[in-house]
Amino acid sequence: MTERRTRTRRTLFEREAELLAVDEALDRLTGSGPDTGGGLLALSGPAGLGKTTLLAEVRRRALARSCTLLAARGGEQEQSQPFHVARQLIQPQLAGRPEAELRAALGSWYAIVGPALGLCAPAQG
Ligand SMILES: Nc1ncnc2c1ncn2[C@@H]1O[C@H](COP(=O)(O)OP(=O)(O)OP(=O)(O)O)[C@@H](O)[C@H]1O
Ligand SMILES: [Mg+2]
After folding, report:
1. What is the per-residue pLDDT across 65-81, written as a single tens digit (0 to 9) for each?
2. DSSP labels for 28-50?
3. What is the pLDDT of residue 91?
4. For residue 122, is it within any domain?
5. Does the chain have fewer CB atoms within 10 Å around its N or its C terminus?
6. What distance in Å separates the CA atoms of residue 75 and residue 69, rounded to the nearest whole number?
7. Which residues of the chain fall short of a pLDDT of 50?
């Protein structure tokens, strides 16, 4: 199975530098050294240059290291929708949880973040 997947996954050409940056970021994220922590990688390029393909490889490498993966898409159409990306990222993790768990997860932000992300109804009054 693994062998078959390896064979059917297309080779990425000319992405050595980008993948090195990805691996370094994942090292920092998952490592135990002093240089541990989160980071931001921004990938940009003209239409069709391979952004989605590269992101798929980023996801694959993150999951291979047992990272929790949250994903969202935003585009021009969605710019007017409040919290569009935040909702996509967080709703799947928290939707359907009992109120007590939501309150524990969101702490003092519950009344603000909960309704904004569609996790609970806004407080009355
Ligand atoms: N590094 C690569 N090596 C070989 N093929 C690639 C590479 N990157 C992308 N491709 C191929 O090029 C095509 C376009 O890639 P992709 O859809 O990832 O581009 P994109 O930048 O996301 O495009 P868009 O701007 O339209 O969203 C796909 O068929 C993909 O398989
Ligand atoms: Mg794309």
Report:
1. 999 999 999 989 988 99
2. HHH--STT----------STTSS
3. 92
4. no
5. C
6. 20
7. 6
The answer to whether residues 82 and 40 belong to one domain is: no
| pLDDT confidence of residue 11 | 87
Q: Does the C-beta of 53 come closer than 6 Å to ligand 1?
A: yes
* Residue range(s) defining the domain that contains residue 50: 2-64
Interval between CA 62 and ligand 2 midpoint (Å)? 19
CB-based contacts of 28, cutoff 8 Å, min separation 6 = 35, 36, 37, 38, 39
User: C-alpha angle with apex 76: 71 to 80, nearest 5 degrees?
Assistant: 90
Instruction: Please tell me the distance between residue 3's alpha carbon and the centre of ligand 2 in angstroms.
Output: 27
Say if 71 falls within a structural domain: no
